[in-house]
């Protein structure tokens, strides 16, 4: 039994944290950089830890490291040595672990310890060209496997509880990640979440059903789902995934606002996450949180609902 199964045996919903980069921006830190939120690992590690701590205080059962866009290649392009780049990758996990230690020092001893997930962003996040939302990489499965393998090994050495293989735009990248986990003999449970363009397809057009069907037989996949997706599509996506697998479904969609890349602004109205959580749980989700533009207040709403449901 992996740690997700253990937690779900005693609680109905695992509450994930919310957005990281947009939360850094809300606190005055610019992520307008090829490294995006990973820039904060060397410029403002204190702020990284503070964001993790605020999500824990809001009720998150899992905090995810600031390694989504962190790669050895990316750090070395900024002038860091290979050893320094590896240390920064591991620092992303350790900052989340430090925040957890600080949180637990505030809480009763009998409270379950929150989990730390190491974020594994897609190849497109490293490219910083928007291809993480298209999946149109000029790279085959072998290239993607090699790209992910070393980063996975470095992050795993920091001993996170989980691996969050997230915002995957294509099934070939999920296949590559599974190959990389096996090549490096990494035994840490991983969830696989896809960015989706509608209620039936992931970003490159592959049916989400095909992704769930393939991952259903993959022992490394502890949960399957979606993130960085419009909330309007989530219920139907959950139902489709549930038809293909009995593994836990993980969902952490965007706020509901839309991003205009031309002027780098957000428009529209945010989702009422407290209300949406009820629908997503009813559809079959067991791990629920938020992605872009969500904040500790949204996670607090999810947590309050989950705790009330457990009473």
TrEMBL record:
One Pfam family of this chain? S-methyl_trans
Cofactor(s) the record lists? Zn(2+)
Against InterPro entries, the record matches this protein to:
BHMT-like (IPR017226), HCY_dom (IPR003726), HCY_dom_sf (IPR036589), Hcy_S-methyltransferase (IPR051486)
Record's Gene3D superfamilies?
A: Homocysteine-binding-like domain (3.20.20.330)
Q: Which PROSITE patterns match?
A: HCY
Q: Where is the Hcy-binding domain?
A: 2-306
* Name this protein carries in UniProt: Hcy-binding domain-containing protein
Instruction: List positions binding Zn(2+).
Output: 228, 291-292
- Which keywords fit this entry according to its UniProt record? Metal-binding, Methyltransferase, Transferase, Zinc
Q: Which organism is it from?
A: Selenomonas noxia F0398
């Amino acid at each position: 039994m992996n740690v997700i199964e253990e937690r779900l045996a005693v609680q109905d919903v695992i509450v994930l944290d919310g957005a990281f980069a947009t939360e850094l921006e809300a606190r005055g830190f610019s992520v307008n950089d090829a490294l995006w939120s990973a820039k904060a690992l060397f410029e403002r590690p204190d702020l990284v830890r503070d964001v993790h701590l605020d999500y824990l205080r809001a009720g998150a059962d899992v905090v995810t490291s600031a390694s989504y866009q962190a790669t050895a290649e990316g750090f070395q392009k900024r002038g860091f040595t290979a050893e320094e780049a590896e240390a920064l990758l591991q620092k992303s996990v350790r900052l989340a672990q430090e925040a957890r230690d600080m949180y637990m020092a505030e809480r009763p001893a009998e409270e379950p310890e929150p989990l730390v997930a190491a974020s594994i962003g897609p190849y497109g996040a490293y490219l910083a060209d928007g291809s993480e939302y298209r999946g149109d990489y000029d790279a085959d499965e072998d290239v993607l496997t090699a790209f992910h393998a070393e980063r996975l090994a470095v992050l795993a050495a920091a001993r996170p509880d989980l691996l969050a293989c997230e915002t995957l735009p294509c099934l070939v990248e999920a296949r590559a990640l599974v190959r990389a986990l096996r090549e490096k003999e990494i035994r840490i449970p991983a969830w696989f979440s896809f960015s989706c363009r509608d209620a039936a397809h992931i970003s490159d057009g592959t049916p989400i059903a095909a992704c769930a069907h393939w991952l259903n037989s993959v022992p490394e996949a502890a949960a399957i789902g979606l993130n960085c997706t419009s909330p309007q599509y989530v219920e139907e996506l959950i139902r489709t995934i549930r038809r293909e697998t009995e593994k836990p479904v993980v969902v952490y969609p965007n706020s509901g606002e839309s991003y205009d890349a031309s002027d780098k602004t957000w428009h529209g109205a945010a989702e009422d996450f407290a209300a949406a959580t009820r629908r997503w749980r009813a559809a079959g989700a067991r791990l629920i949180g938020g992605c872009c533009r969500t904040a500790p207040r949204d996670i607090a709403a999810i947590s309050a609902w989950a705790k009330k449901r457990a009473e």
